[in-house]
Amino acid sequence: MLNRIVLIGRLTKDPELRYTPANGVAVTSFTLAVNRRFKQPGQQEADFVPIVVWKQQAENCAKYLGKGSLVAVDGRLQIRSYEDKEGQRKTFSEVVADSVQFLESAKDRRSADSTHSYDDTLVEEDVPF
């Protein structure tokens, strides 16, 4: 069996770094905007994929990446479920990154920020994967 995902896209906002309460392991999360290959003329379509990064790589992502950064993510799909406040069972998909490659310098990112604007206002229930 194989569970492997490779994505290239831009961060929709700055990464969020936190540490697990039990043992203090670093974990960073961000959303990656990945353009769809086939889009309608005149429209830009993208998927917004939640990414989770662990340990030293999580700290590096939080330190060196920001909104608009172009990255390649190699990882695996993880599907979790939980019960919300109303007692409804919810399912959430995310990519757990094994590797995050920075594909541009900070200087390149600053110039890209002025040309790309992604809006990830979808709430997790709206994400269809």
3D architecture notes:
There is one protein chain. With 129 residues, this protein is mainly β. It has one domain (5-36, 45-114): Nucleic acid-binding proteins (OB fold (Dihydrolipoamide Acetyltransferase, E2P), Beta Barrel). The chain has helices spanning 55-64, 106-113; strands at residues 5-11, 16-19, 26-35, 46-54, 70-83, 89-102. The chain has a 5-stranded mixed beta barrel with strand order 1-3-4-6-5. The chain starts with a strand and ends in a 16-residue tail after the last helix. Mean pLDDT is 86; it is low at 121-129.
Summarize model confidence as the mean pLDDT.
86
Number of helices: 2
What is the gyration radius calculated from CA atoms? 15 Å
CATH class: Mainly Beta
Q: What strand order characterises the main sheet?
A: 1-3-4-6-5
Low-confidence segments: 121-129
As for the CATH topology, it is OB fold (Dihydrolipoamide Acetyltransferase, E2P)
Spell out the CATH superfamily: Nucleic acid-binding proteins
CATH architecture: Beta Barrel
Q: Which structural class do you get from the secondary structure elements?
A: mainly beta
H/E series: EEEEHEEH
The global form is globular
User: Could you tell me the number of beta strands?
Assistant: 6
Largest sheet: 5 strands, mixed, barrel
State the share of residues found in helices, binned by percent: 10-25%
